Amino acid sequence: MSQLHPKYVLILLVLASLYLAASGGQETEEGSAKPVRNDLFPIDPKSYLLGQFRPDTTGDFVRLPGKLTRGRAYLRSEAAEALERMVLAARDAGIHLTVISATRTFRQQRVIWNGKFTGSRRSGGRNLAREYPDSTERCRAILQYSSAPGTSRHHWGTDVDFNSTDPAYWRIGSGVAALHWLDHNAHEYGFFMAYPPDREHGYRYEPWHWSYQSLAGVLLRDYYDHVVSDEDLDGFLGARHFRRLPWREWYVNGVSKALK
Ligand SMILES: [Zn+2]
Fold first, then answer.
1. How far apart are CA 184 and CA 188, in angstroms?
2. 232 Cα to the center of ligand 1, angstroms
3. Ligand 1: distance of its center to the CA of 148 in Å?
4. What is the mean pLDDT of residues 52-61?
5. Which residues hold their Cβ within 5 A of ligand 1, which is an ion?
6. Is the pLDDT of residue 1 over 50?
7. 22 CA distance to ligand 1 centroid (A)?
């Protein structure tokens, strides 16, 4: 090998120092992720945000009393207290709100997702496995109303579904009255509709899904994107097809502006 002219050695040294400076800058940026707040995370942040825990045995999760839900449902304690105040205030106004789903784990979300992926579970009465033989298209169809395991806000113990997940319920009678009350009052208790109609991408309009902002807002804004990576989203049917979709931008971050 011929010897390098000193001029080229100098150029190489400059390039190397520029590269080091650039990668050093990146490190600083990654290091700027917010420090972990213990009051926000009852367990390690990744397991928590991915729903890899049991709410019945995890600190700060409480079981909702029977007057708020018919089944067994858990929320973070602060969200549960605010929820109870809201539901009782609604009841005083003649509006009935029942929690039909609260915290869901990764495993529970996987049962929903895999069921829709194989067609054993209907989605709005439809068999998506039959309608969408292409796996990526099928993921998109499931994502109209269901999250992939690891990306659901229901993992966080801050979000609830009220009364019915049938869009038709919210268009007539008591559904309209409940929605009207929530639209005008929920914010006073810290709750906001996660998926309102005025979004460009992501899940369809979900009038039933409400989120406790003071916890969920911080989790999304300061932590989720730093903590959860593509590789964490695995272990469910069609995962590699799902990961090629803009899942982070369209679905995880495709929420109401009030929750960002
Ligand atoms: Zn929901």
1. 9
2. 21
3. 12
4. 96
5. 161, 209
6. no
7. 42
